[in-house]
Specification:
Number of strands: 6
Distance between the termini: 42 Å
Oligomer: single chain
Protein name: Adenylosuccinate lyase
Structural class: mainly alpha
Shape: elongated
Order of helices and strands: HHHHHHEEHEHEHEHHEHHHHHHH
GO biological process, one term: 'de novo' AMP biosynthetic process
Keywords: Lyase, Purine biosynthesis
EC number: 4.3.2.2
Mean pLDDT: 96
Catalytic activity: N(6)-(1,2-dicarboxyethyl)-AMP = fumarate + AMP; (2S)-2-[5-amino-1-(5-phospho-beta-D-ribosyl)imidazole-4-carboxamido]succinate = 5-amino-1-(5-phospho-beta-D-ribosyl)imidazole-4-carboxamide + fumarate
Length: about 425
């Protein structure tokens, strides 16, 4: 991933140097396990732990001849050792080391992503509570519907992130796995105790059965989960983009001192952060397709997945880390305009209360739904076409005034009715006790 979208802590996990370093950790853990089984002298293991090193440049030079990165790695490490070098890569195949190291690296990446998720959820929760009763118009099909609150919008985000968090924890548990079971997964040249020891030492689980590689449905599930997380971020960011439009202007990404919105138009304040989130989400979802196509491999393995994963595994985790961090900051600093929200509610001359009038005619006056609907709809059309107050039309209509008092009509046009169950919803979502 390019530096622009790479945060240092996550980027460091996926460097080539760190890959070799983690491979060496796995190799040493394998030898420690062999030693505990009495197969390798403990003195040799101590020499390996003390002296084993590698050179990125040295590995690259050897690989230019071998065209095999694991062979190049083991040969370069062996150069730093004496006779004990014979125990490097003893009884294992390349993917025993590579996939197990992958599981270990994912564990480190997941620690960052879990923290990212929680931080975003904390900000959403704080903002939701703050704006719980901040009334705004709810929109369906992009058109004014009925009143809601900005806090309820954020509460939906929080609930969605709870689901994302649960899905992520499950997918992370799947991907944080290792296998030390040999060329076709049969433990022919290495006992299961070695795998158990290595995985336990690295803090990952041992996959119950594998071929030469870990089953790639684990990786597909993981990338799909990250893609769904990215899509949630896009959904949230898209809402901010809509609400920041000049004609709406109910929220706005905070515009910092010295920030520029356009090279040509000095007045511009654009939702560039949210647009960035939407764009990067497309990249992450694209990786999901590649991960799914990596699942079917020939027999006990082929190498068609390897080149794909060298790109999508680092890039997906790096991008999601960047996206969550950036969107958390956007939301934390978001400018919210409650008065504009109230003003926008009046753009449709009170038409947003049409259902309340309809239901009052049914509930209080006893009209059939058809008769009540036919009494209200013509007034909504007149209000919309002529820009007249819908409430005044209702009050002046002889049919409706025959059934509803002024008090009834005033009550029908009170937005508090629509948001009266916000406390109940917040408790159900888990935002308040």
């Amino acid at each position: 991933m390019i530096d622009r979208y790479t945060r240092p802590e996550m980027g460091k996990i996926w460097t080539l140097h760190n890959q070799y370093n983690d491979w060496l950790k796995v190799e040493i853990a394998i030898d420690e396990a062999w030693s505990k089984l009495g197969e390798i002298p403990s003195s040799d293991v101590e020499k390996i732990k003390k002296n084993a090193t590698f050179s990125d440049e040295g590995i690259a030079k050897i690989e230019s001849v071998t065209h095999h990165d694991m062979v190049a790695f083991t040969r370069d490490v062996s150069k730093s050792l004496g006779k004990e070098r014979k125990w490097i890569h003893y009884g294992v195949t390349s993917t025993d080391v590579e996939d197990t190291a992958y599981g270990y690296r994912f564990k480190k990446a997941d620690r960052i992503l879990k923290d990212d998720i929680q931080k975003l959820m904390d900000v959403i929760a704080k903002k939701a509570v703050k704006y719980k009763k901040t009334v705004m118009i709810g929109r369906t099909h992009g058109v004014h519907a009925e009143p809601t609150t900005f806090g309820l919008v954020l509460a939906r985000w929080y609930s969605e992130m709870k689901r994302n968090q649960k899905r992520f924890d499950a997918a992370a548990n799947g991907i944080e796995a290792g296998k030390i079971s040999g060329a076709v997964g049969t433990f022919a040249n290495i006992p299961p105790q070695v795998e158990k020891y290595v995985c336990h030492k690295l803090g990952i689980r041992a996959q119950e059965i594998s071929s030469q590689v870990l089953p790639r449905d684990l990786h597909a599930e993981y990338i799909a989960t990250l893609a769904l997380l990215a899509t949630s971020l896009e959904k949230f960011a898209l809402e901010i983009r809509h609400l920041q439009r000049t004609e709406v202007h109910e929220v706005e990404e905070h515009f910092a001192t010295g920030q520029k919105g356009s090279s040509a138009m000095p007045h511009k304040r654009n939702p560039v952060g949210s647009e960035n989130i939407c764009g990067l989400s497309r990249v992450v979802r694209g990786h999901m397709i590649s991960a799914y196509e990596d699942v079917p491999l020939w027999h006990e393995r082929d190498i068609s997945h390897s080149s794909v994963e060298r790109i999508i595994m680092p890039d997906t985790t790096i991008l999601l880390d960047y996206m969550m961090h950036r969107f958390t900051n956007i939301l934390n600093d978001l400018d919210v305009f409650p008065e504009r929200m109230k003003k926008n509610m009046n753009l449709t001359h009170g038409l947003i209360y049409s259902q309340r009038v309809l239901l009052k005619l049914i509930d209080d006056a006893g009209l059939t739904r058809e008769k009540a609907y036919d009494a209200v709809q013509p007034l909504t059309a007149k209000s919309w076409q002529n820009g007249e107050s819908f409430k005044k039309l209702v009050e002046d209509d002889p049919t409706i005034s025959k059934y509803l008092s002024k008090k009834d009509i005033d009550d029908a046009f009170d937005y508090h009715y629509h948001i009266r169950r916000a406390d109940y919803i917040f408790k159900r979502v888990g935002l308040e006790k």
